[in-house]
Specification:
Keywords: Coiled coil, Signal. With 369 residues, the chain is mainly alpha-helical. Helix content is 89%, strand content 0%.
Length: 369
């Protein structure tokens, strides 16, 4: 209907109303000029003039023009309806996008929180634990090496003490053998025993633990009157007692050495077990560090994806707002144009129903004849 009206308007525009006719007042002419600025106002005036000129009835004209105005009102109502629908769609879309953006922002926050407060502290903790395990392994091997060196030194000391004991026992045995030959000795035998005891005394190593005590006994034996059998027996008893003490001391040394070796071997087993545990812990911790590194990489990739998704959603929201703003501008301009045309149409219809318009048409008809 609107297109048909426009076409008719173009046809009727060739019969423009002459508002300079004496029938019109200056106020009418001003109102006429305002109405003529509207396409529909101009159309209605021209249509009214044509209708009346061709003998049409004014009531019929009002009816037709009222229909045209109703059509304009319906079209305007449809514009309002379409905009209301667009507004509903916009609000739903904004609500949907806003919710998705809020959800995505929460995901971004959670991902950053997981990265900053879980993965990074975990990475640092794992690194410190691995470093501690490596220090434990180094300390374990150091302890084993120190224990091994100490065991070797202790064993060497044990062998030296065993040699001292054996040397002392041998000296005592040799002295006892010589002294046992002096029962009812001749002068020659006594001199021979004294010579041998002096030789034993001189052969003892200075570092011997029992050196002083044995030398004292030997000195007594060398200077003794071997003809005194009582003194000789006392010397023999003293040498025998010393020999028993040396044998007991040697046995204790041997037992202590065996116990020390046993403790050392147990310590070696313990240290090796600890070393194996540390090595297994290093394997586990290395796997945890690798898993942590993979998780960090995955989380950083996820953060990039989430930020990209968030940018997309924000872009969609901005595009929707821009599109709706454009639709609103179009709607406001369209409504303003419709209101302008409707106002002009009502003014034109009011003017058509004034007697001056009818008089003007009649004067035009008279002028034509």
């Amino acid at each position: 209907m609107y297109k048909l009206a426009v076409c008719t308007l173009l046809i009727l525009s060739v019969t423009a109303i002459d508002v300079t006719n004496s029938v019109w007042t200056s106020h009418d002419q001003k109102a006429f000029a305002q109405i003529k600025q509207s396409g529909w106002g101009n159309f209605i005036l021209n249509f009214g003039e044509l209708h009346l000129t061709t003998g049409g009835i004014l009531a019929e004209l009002n009816t037709e023009i009222a229909k045209l105005i109703d059509e304009l009102d319906e079209e305007l109502a449809e514009v309002h309806h379409q905009y209301a629908r667009r507004t509903d769609v916009h609000n739903r879309e904004v609500n949907r996008l806003s919710q998705e953006i809020q959800d995505k922002e929460r995901e971004v926050f959670n991902a950053h929180d997981f990265y900053d407060n879980v993965l990074i502290p975990q990475r640092d903790r794992f690194a410190a634990q691995l470093e501690q395990l490596q220090e434990n392994i180094a300390q374990n091997r150091k302890t084993l090496n120190e224990a091994t060196v100490q065991r070797a030194n202790d064993h060497a000391e044990f062998e030296a003490k065993v040699a001292e004991h054996n040397e002392a026992i041998s000296a005592i045995d040799e002295s006892l053998q010589l002294l046992s030959q002096l029962e009812s000795p001749s002068l020659v035998q006594i001199q021979k025993v004294q010579k041998n005891l002096t030789k034993i005394q001189q052969s003892l190593k200075r570092h011997s633990t029992f050196q002083t005590f044995i030398k004292t006994l030997l000195e007594i034996a060398v200077e003794a009157n071997f003809a005194d059998q009582g003194a000789l027996r006392e010397i023999l008893t003293a040498f025998n007692n010393l020999r028993v003490q040396l044998v007991d001391s040697l046995n204790q040394l041997t037992a202590d050495e065996a116990e020390a070796q046993k403790d050392f071997e147990a310590r070696v087993i313990q240290l090796n077990q600890e070393h194996a545990e540390f090595q297994r812990a290093v394997v586990v911790k290395t796997a945890e560090i690798e898993a942590n590194a993979n998780k960090i990489e995955q989380t950083l990739d996820l953060i990039d994806v989430l930020h990209a998704d968030l940018d997309t959603l924000n872009g969609q929201l901005q595009a929707e707002n821009d599109d709706f703003a454009f639709a609103t501008d179009v709607y406001n301009a369209t409504v303003a144009e419709y209101n302008k045309e409707l106002n002009a149409a009502h003014q034109a219809l009011d003017l058509l129903n004034q007697p001056r318009f009818t008089d003007y048409v009649k004067s035009q008809l008279k002028g034509a004849f």
